[in-house]
Amino acid sequence: MNKNIVCIGAGYIGGPTMAVIAKMNPDRKVIVVDINKSRIAAWNSKNYALPIFEPGLVDVVKEVRGKNLFFSTDIKKAVQDCDIIFVGVNTPTKMFGKGAGRASDLQYWEATARNVAKWANGDKIVVEKSTLPVRTAAAMSAILNTHEKYHFEVLSNPEFLAEGTAIKDLLTPDRVLIGGAKTPSGDAAVDELVKVYCGKGGKWVPRERVLTTNVWSAELTKLAANAFLAQRVSSINAIAGLCEATGADVDEVARVIGADRRIGPKFLKAGPGFGGSCFKKDVLNLVYLCETFGLHTAAEYWMGVIKMNDHQQERIVSRLFRAMFNTLANKKIAMFGFAFKADTGDTRETPAGTVARLLNDEHVCLSITDPKAIPNAKKDLEDLLCTPTPPTYTSDPYVAAKDADAILLMTDWSEYPALDWTKLYKSMRKPALVFDTRNCLDADKLRKIGFTVLNIGK
Ligand code: UDX
Ligand code: ADP
Hints:
By secondary structure, the chain is α/β, with parallel strands linked by helices. It has helices at about 15-25, 35-45, 55-65, 75-80, 105-120, 135-145, 165-170, 185-200, 215-245, 250-260, 280-290, 295-325, 350-360, 375-380, 395-400, 420-425, 445-450, and strands spanning about 5-10, 30-35, 70, 85, 125-130, 150-155, 175-180, 210-215, 330-335, 365-370, 390-395, 405-410, 435, 450-455. The termini are far apart.
């Protein structure tokens, strides 16, 4: 019989992943639970006002919700109904005590594991979906297997989906990674999860793309994979500064580097630095792990990736400062885009947040516009309301730019190049500046209109 599935945590990972698992496994029941009632209500909303925005997500949810995908706050009942339990609760960076600012805060994870043990009514497979420090599975297994009657097999199944392309990444993944104990019960649990990812009738992920490893390799691979991607972004950003100083063009350099098949073209776009919920957190976790095991040089190496990223945002502000005659106080700057990348409303660790704060320190009158991220931006910058120049927000870029001295483009939304830049120019104070930190606008066209244009790495 096919095992039913519950996912604890209805967030960015749990929601989309379970929607696609339900779609590709119509013969299994999939329940997504969360302690957050309003989040579950949003997942269940009649008009599909889902709590997260992902292209294609609504269509999948429309197809399966109420058929074999359910959202609920009754965690106990769902745990008892299902044999495979995914855990996708948040594991933010710890802000207190040992490992503060580096290690993951595992209290939500541990609380969840203890509840699972308390409520279990049979053997269960527990799947780590949240990114967790290496060896968490062993700790969880120890907590769960204090149970007298039932056996719990803990698997690590890290998620590689990127926001904005989550549904596509889930439907056609490069690979699925499943880590399990090298024991008969571990192997059996891995086989069960492989079946889920192969989908009904083997119509989902081809078997050869489901890679199985031991638990610790799986846990470490997730951190290492994100650290490698983050490191590429920091590397190209380190070259960008040099391009600005020497007259080279970072986009040209990246194009040629990426043409080497050993390197490849992806994740070589210079910009304001990486954001998002994973990169910084995972690199910091890796740093913490290295330090824990006395690998201080390796820790420093990975810390350099974060330092370079922070430096990129400081550099943006100092370049703006110089280009605007060394004073920014009371000047109006329109920030185009606040999300950490295009096609998402997510603002976690967004470079725009850091830059907004640095500009606020300079008493800039910041007008922030973004097609999706305004509600999150307002929450993130709430504490700036009591500063001398609190930011203002608008979904209309033309309103943001009116009477502004500069436009600072932070997110590469596809609508920005298509705006009427002559109209924007006419409404601004002169000299009007555009700082395109994503190199996504036509700089020559803007210069012809009359703008002063700054880019990254040019
Ligand atoms: C990332 C990983 O890609 C994914 O596999 C993992 O599961 C979660 O973390 P995500 O955070 O959604 O996904 O975004 P991603 O598309 O990887 O971009 C991360 C950040 O790097 C963004 O801020 C993006 O703007 C920046 N970036 C990316 C660059 O600055 N240059 C690039 O070339 C690529
Ligand atoms: P991620 O990006 O890892 O999916 P999110 O923060 O988007 O992280 O989602 C995590 C979800 O987990 C949140 O909706 C939160 O309410 C939920 N959560 C946290 N702790 C628990 C718990 N003990 N039981 C159920 N859900 C939980």
